[in-house]
From TrEMBL:
GO terms for molecular function: chorismate mutase activity; prephenate dehydratase activity. It is an enzyme of class 4 (lyase). SMART domains: CM_2 (SM00830). Residues 97-271 form the Prephenate dehydratase domain. Pathway: Metabolic intermediate biosynthesis; prephenate biosynthesis; prephenate from chorismate: step 1/1; Amino-acid biosynthesis; L-phenylalanine biosynthesis; phenylpyruvate from prephenate: step 1/1. It catalyses: chorismate = prephenate; prephenate + H(+) = 3-phenylpyruvate + CO2 + H2O. Residues 284-362 form the ACT domain. This is Bifunctional chorismate mutase/prephenate dehydratase. It is found in: Cytoplasm. Its main location: cytoplasm. SUPFAM superfamilies: ACT-like (SSF55021), Chorismate mutase II (SSF48600), Periplasmic binding protein-like II (SSF53850). CDD domains: ACT_CM-PDT, PBP2_PDT_1. GO terms for cellular component: cytoplasm.
Amino acid sequence: MSDLPSLRKKIDTLDTTLVNILNERARVSLDIGAAKRQLDNTEGLPTTDLHVYMPGREKEVYAKLTRLNHGPLKDDSLHAIFREVMSASISLQKDVSMAYLGPPGTFSHQAAYQRLGDSVVYVPQKQISDVVDAVEKGQTTYGIVPFENSNFGSVVETLDRFVKTKTRVRAETYLTVHQCLLSNSPLDKITKVYSHPQGLGQTQMWLAANVPNAKRISVKSTAEAAQQAALETGAAAVCSEICAELYGLEVTARDIEDGAANTTRFLIIGTSSDNATKDDHTLIKFTVDHRQPGALCDGLKVFKDYSLNLFKIDSRPSGLHPWHYVFFVECSGHQQNEDVQKAVKDLDQFCLDVVVLGSFPNQRPE
Ligand SMILES: O=C(O)C(=O)C[C@]1(C(=O)O)C=C[C@@H](O)C=C1
């Protein structure tokens, strides 16, 4: 066993090597940025559209790290370190900003941070549709929107905004969600509970059992609920534990979500999708021509014809005529794959309108 000063000397030497290697990596990243700019120019795209966040490549890097890692560092620790290495790498290539449903402390904020790290600028928005607006207007490079929860299902505000969007899905990311009840009043004095409809929905059984008479009030986000609860006596919020410190509230109860393994899936949107990997999903929206009997059924069959797995189907009112719907389907494959292109072409025969909202690497946790 060496003595402490000599062990620290070893660490100092290794840190010097690490700093030099990290900077060598950063220089290669700058070269990659220059190469991407050149590519964009040859494709006639404005360089402001330059895409530096490459979820497909990052998935490959993380998989390689897991293969290379023989400890004692845990995979999660190594991934967290590389999250920041790649975040810094992204910001060297271009100033990147990400719109999210604010204020700070929402699950969207945590999911964004988990995926893009510390070197990206996060821009809070008042509601989900503003996140999409920010990307469409070019105010931020990317945006993150909640898409569905494993227990409470689809986030309808996101789907409703996707009915009319020019943005494209670039990535997905999953976040384990633990809901808390935060308040500055004791449980038996709580008369109002604020949250996003998803927060209230994911905890409805717990709320019914523990605060049966409290009024449930929906607001635009879980962190806005915390802000509001901090202003009123007898008010509580269903939100993340981090909101306690952010907004000056006490934790009345932890882990109050009704279902086990409560997980929310988020989509990262931008102006285009990344290139195909070997394991992608594609999100498509379409409206069928109801004057053709069986149009929806025939439309869905095209996915079977090309052996594309369907993971999700949703519908929302189109907003154009009563009882007229926009359908959303998520299938296996990438829009650059021939089978997906053929399926979309065939689907078009049964539809008034088909839009591929984007393709992204599958990140579903096993
Ligand atoms: O490979 C790229 O395209 C890069 O920009 C490099 C890099 C990295 O640092 O490894 C950085 C950002 C991307 O999201 C993926 C990878």
